[in-house]
Design goal:
Length: about 270
């Protein structure tokens, strides 16, 4: 017998089955259980249904029946059946629960850059980790972050306090805002395995993707032909063309970064 805390009411439940599974987040061994709850009449049944729906969204605690919390659980599956008779119907609810972890990241190591998030959440898409965090950066840290963003597509990420295992990840689209003399920056990090899995479904974006690639290639070739013509006519030096490319690449990156500036990232969910 265990007790489940539905909004402050400790409801007895019969433990029917217990197993273990490995956490994707930390690698720790966690419990999964199946429990049964009996509702003695239709009114109690309807109250329990509402309580279970709330628990599906926020989780549920198990207790010792005296208010002491023992574990926190995620509601995976639910079902119920009922019997009719005298004086009335009884409802038998079955719940499958998985033990939840409290994930507390102490710092994020992005390559050689260490940051302390003030907001953090992570989830899995299949077996691929996706992180959404927010950090407060000094101008120096912001400059280091921008250099990392301009570097290699994938880099090692370590979630200190959760797992010391490095994962190859990349940046997603991220908002940022000024905060007095500092920068508040959103971090969206996507594991490499997510991209590798999605590549198998690249045909879903055809023919639009191929058309876009052809258009980009056309524009690049036109610009290169223009450079060549100007150089051949003596109107542009080879070194000047290289400088133009370098300056344009830097300005384009900074302009794209400015597109994601907002008044305050904390106003967004």
């Amino acid at each position: 017998m265990i007790y489940l805390d539905f909004a402050g009411k400790e409801v007895p439940a019969n433990l029917k089955d217990e197993d273990t599974f490995r956490s994707k987040h930390t690698g720790a061994e966690l419990k999964s259980i199946k429990v049964d709850i009996v509702a003695e009449d239709q009114e109690a049944h309807e109250r329990l249904l509402k309580s279970i729906e709330r628990a599906k969204k926020v989780g549920i605690n198990s207790t010792d029946g005296k208010g002491t919390v023992l574990n926190r659980w995620k509601v995976k599956n639910t079902s119920y059946s009922y019997t009719t008779g005298v004086p009335g119907s009884k409802y038998y609810h079955s719940l499958e629960l998985e033990e939840m972890e409290e994930l507390k990241v102490s710092s994020l190591a992005l390559g050689g850059l260490s940051l302390q998030p003030y907001s953090y959440e992570e989830k899995f898409d299949g077996d691929a980790l996706i992180i959404k965090a927010r950090v407060l950066l000094s101008e120096k840290q912001y400059a280091e972050l921008k250099e990392l963003m301009k570097g290699e597509r994938y880099f090692p990420v370590i979630r200190h306090g959760i797992s010391d295992e490095p994962r190859e990840m990349r940046f997603g689209t991220m908002r940022w805002s000024k905060h007095e003399d500092d920068i508040k920056h959103e971090l969206l990090l996507v594991e490499k395995s997510y991209d590798e899995a999605k590549e198998r479904f690249s045909g879903l974006f055809e023919p639009e993707m191929s058309r876009m690639q052809h258009m980009i290639a056309d524009h690049v070739e036109i610009l290169e032909e223009l450079f060549t013509t100007l150089i051949n006519k003596g109107l542009l030096e080879v070194e000047e063309a290289s400088d133009i490319r370098a300056r344009a690449a830097q300005r384009i990156w900074e302009r794209k970064k400015e597109l994601y500036r907002v008044d305050d990232i904390d106003k967004f969910a």
